[in-house]
Design brief:
The complex is a heterodimer of chains A (308) and B (295). Chain A has 308 residues and is mainly α. Chain A has 13 helices and two strands; from the N terminus they run αααααββαααααααα. Chain A has a domain at 23-231. Chain A has a two-stranded antiparallel sheet. In chain B, the strands form two sheets. Chain B has a two-stranded antiparallel ribbon with strand order 1-2. In chain B, strands 3-4 form a two-stranded antiparallel sheet. Chain B is mainly alpha-helical and 295 residues long. Chain B has one domain: ABC transporter involved in vitamin B12 uptake, BtuC (Orthogonal Bundle), CATH 1.10.3470. In chain B, strand 3 (138-140) and strand 4 (145-147) form a beta hairpin. The N and C termini of chain B lie far apart (53 Å). The chains are: A mainly alpha (308), B mainly alpha (295). The interface between A and B is large, with 41 and 41 residues.
Chain lengths: 308, 295
């Protein structure tokens, strides 16, 4: 068995044992934001597109899933799938508009469009504006298994996380993923080789949006709330930071980064605005001194040792 | 009462002047962004936070040092400019060789730090800042009442915008700047101190944001959140106008402010999204922006 497979096996075992050792709600939050950051990383790390509006997919999916589970009484897995499908559609529309511009303009367009979605969520009746959708029922998986206990819910979240994570892996190592990487490295070259670059970018954007939506939908069930925080630009910034801190373009980095940020927010939640300041400082430090991120740095050091 | 398009003329003109005032701020901010982007190739996400800082500085000057509006109008932008010099010298300088995206991320981090710091110190509710006595009251134009301060904001920002345009397009200094934007290496070879020029450009751009902040202080509540509310709209303005042209940024800013104001009259529900909707339309018709040129 090779090293990577061993690593994943160890991680899987750890993930299965974790809820019996740690606090399941905290672990679920880490998994949801980890998947969200992985989805974001598919764009920034593997296609070279910086979307500064990914919260719109995360947040909207949370609302849709919460609404479907609470008002329509759908079972959790159907609500999650429906919400994911909705964000895929939104992702298609937003991506279709945004791929018209490159680089920082792409970032600004996605940010502006996400702000539009934010204002839609402020005004739409089903989101309950400032209150958000509260006490979303977790329901019964397939109508059979009750998810009210945190441990049961944890495995529900873990299943979706593993699915999303596996899907991203498949995308990255597929021929399609190789084309995405070539776009990241040299877009004009990829274009001149005959690849319809915009179409590839759009596909990557839709996939990333859908997986981000999956994360948001599962999160709304796990924590029982969907609020404006999930869809605001600060959330878009947070997911950028998670990915940057963990390591852009690494497979596990986003999960590590997300866990680090969630842990930090948990410990510092009593400090009010200091959380914002510390996040800002982390951003600045990461950009100036630590661009590889945690996992990227480990890979770099480790890789260097083996080559010697 | 006289009506225009079925709306009382007073309400119509009121929103129109508010729109003009907002447009003036959009114009000054997007102008600063365009100047900075031209020279540094960085989209300054901290622009909103520095605008907030300008307003905060003038409020603090009044509160702690009893410095009045007129001095604040000079001191606060200079203060913001100095902060800009520090940011450029210590941080942005290291990013010029990297992907442009890192500049955006760094300045986003700075925006978080500034906003968090001011919120920690002064809360997020906001404080009033009175306009100087000269500007209290209104002009009676016969068909409407025009608050004097609003007229002053529009006038002052028009002067600043035109002066900036003149400086960049018509003077020797502006010629250096435009040359530096096109080809910094060549300009440096002619013996012009490009790094210094870059620093001063950044300071000037954020100084403009600071000045807009001072002008905005009496119009809005001075609060730590005022920057993040405006910066995303300004980004949309920049996407619509394109960052290639100075006059383009000014005109786009003004026009969008007015459109936003009028939307408040005719269809208030859409007033917060109308700028983004226009952005979508522009992206569909002219992806490079109204005045833009893709390099």
């Amino acid at each position: 068995m090779n090293k990577t497979a061993t690593l994943y096996l160890v991680l899987l075992i750890a993930a299965v044992i974790a809820p019996f050792v740690g606090y399941p709600v905290f672990l679920m939050t880490c998994l949801c934001f980890g998947l969200f950051a992985c989805a974001f990383n598919l764009l920034i790390g593997f296609t070279g597109l910086l979307s500064f509006g990914h919260a719109m997919f995360f947040g909207l999916a949370a609302y849709v899933c919460g609404h479907a589970a609470k008002e329509w009484g759908w079972t959790p897995e159907v609500a999650v799938i429906f919400a994911t499908a909705c964000t895929a559609v939104l992702g298609y529309v937003v991506g279709w508009l945004a791929v018209r511009r490159q680089g920082i303009y792409f970032a600004m367009v996605t940010l502006a469009l996400s702000q539009m979605v934010y204002f839609f969520c402020v005004q739409a009746p089903f989101t309950y504006a400032e209150d958000g959708i509260q006490s979303i029922p977790r329901g019964k998986f397939l109508g059979l298994i009750d998810l009210t206990s945190d441990t049961a819910m944890y495995f529900f979240v873990l299943a979706f996380f593993i699915f999303g994570f596996w899907l991203i892996q498949r995308i990255i190592y597929s021929p399609f993923g190789q084309v995405l990487k070539s776009i990241r490295e040299n877009e004009p070259r990829a274009l001149s080789l005959g690849y319809d670059v915009d179409k590839y970018k759009l596909m990557a954007f839709v996939l990333s949006a859908a997986i981000a939506g999956l994360a948001g939908a599962v999160k709304s069930l796990a924590l029982g709330i969907a609020t404006l925080t999930d869809v605001g630009w600060q959330m878009s910034g947070e997911v950028v930071l998670m990915t940057l801190l963990g390591g852009m373009g690494t497979i596990l980095g986003p999960v590590v980064g997300a866990s680090a940020i969630i842990t930090m927010q948990n410990y510092l939640s009593g400090l009010g605005s200091w959380v914002t300041i510390i996040m800002g400082v982390t951003f600045v430090i990461c950009v100036l001194l630590f661009r590889r991120g945690i996992v990227g740095e480990i890979e770099y050091r480790f890789g260097k040792k083996t080559s010697k | 009462m006289t009506e225009i398009f079925g709306v009382p003329i007073q309400a119509f003109m009121g929103q129109l002047t508010i729109g003009l005032v907002n447009g003036a701020f959009y114009a000054m901010l997007s102008l600063g962004l365009a100047v900075i982007f031209g020279m540094l190739n960085i989209v300054n996400f901290a622009h909103g936070a520095l605008y907030m800082m300008g307003a905060m500085f003038s409020w603090m000057l009044l509160k702690y040092a009893d410095v009045n509006y007129w001095f604040a109008l000079v001191l606060a932008p200079v203060g913001v400019g100095i902060v800009g010099v520090i940011i450029e010298k210590t941080m942005l300088r290291w990013l010029y060789q990297l992907d442009h995206l890192y500049g955006l991320l760094l300045t986003f981090g700075l925006a978080l730090i500034l906003e968090g710091a001011f919120r920690e110190a002064y809360g997020s509710s906001g404080a009033p800042y009175d306009a100087p006595d000269v500007f209290k009251g209104v002009f009676n134009l016969g068909f409407m009442f025009l608050p004097k301060y609003r007229a002053w904001v529009v006038f002052a920002s028009a002067v600043v915008c035109i002066a900036t345009w003149y400086m960049i397009e018509k003077t020797k200094l502006g010629a250096y700047l435009r040359a530096g934007t096109e080809n910094p290496k060549l300009v440096q070879a002619f013996g012009i101190n490009v790094p210094l020029m870059v620093t001063l450009t950044y300071a000037f751009g954020v100084g403009l944001a600071g000045l807009a902040g001072v002008l905005a202080a009496p119009v809005y509540q001075v609060s730590a959140l005022m920057g993040s509310n405006i910066i995303i709209v300004v980004f949309a303005v920049v996407v619509i106008g394109g960052m290639g042209s100075i006059m383009g940024s000014i005109l786009t800013g003004l026009a969008l402010g007015i459109i936003e104001g009028l939307t408040k009259v005719f269809y208030p529900e859409a007033s917060s999204t109308v700028v983004y909707i226009i952005m979508v339309i522009v992206l569909l018709i002219r992806p490079t922006g109204l005045f833009g040129r893709e390099k």
